[in-house]
Amino acid sequence: MLARLALAGLALAALATPAAAQTWKIDGAHSTASFTVKHMMVSNVHGRFGKVEGTIVYDGKNIGAVKAEATIDATTITTDNEKRDAHLKSPDFFDAAGFPTITFKSKRAEAVGKGKFKLIGDLTMRGKTKEVVLDVDGPTDPVTVQNAQRVGATATTTINRQDFGVSWSRAMDGGGYVVGDQVKITIELELIKQTS
Fold first, then answer.
1. Model's pTM, two decimal places?
2. pLDDT for res 17
3. Which domains does the chain carry?
């Protein structure tokens, strides 16, 4: 009888123990951070950053326990137009020389449905920090390639660039501005499970 009670107690303790947190590293070769902004009120300009780094901590079960930190290299911005890229790196926009990185650090996560959650955290750009909400699809089921587990996820949000001091624009004849204020951000992530 005592042995059975001891075994039952061990089983309950095992169930109560949370799954061990796992660290996943962003695979920079297969991850991108891109943006879309309105140009002259009529078309969308797309851009991307060439270098994204960071880690995600996740136990594989409890979305609420997700923690994320990511760094984007602002100096790697490209819109496939050298003149425009140089302007975007200037103090008129990202001031990449003075503020070479854009960072995100999560504060909490909230599940919103199967395979979807909201990741709330602080986005810092040009020395200004604002709370943003990322809408995340994922993570995918893990796959094992070359003895390493990988998962993927996509995060999107829309920010007002004025909140971060990215304020340059020019009024157009007849109303409107050359560059819109609303910027849609999309982050495509491939993550590698760390084993040590």
1. 0.85
2. 42
3. 19-193 (2.40.128.110)
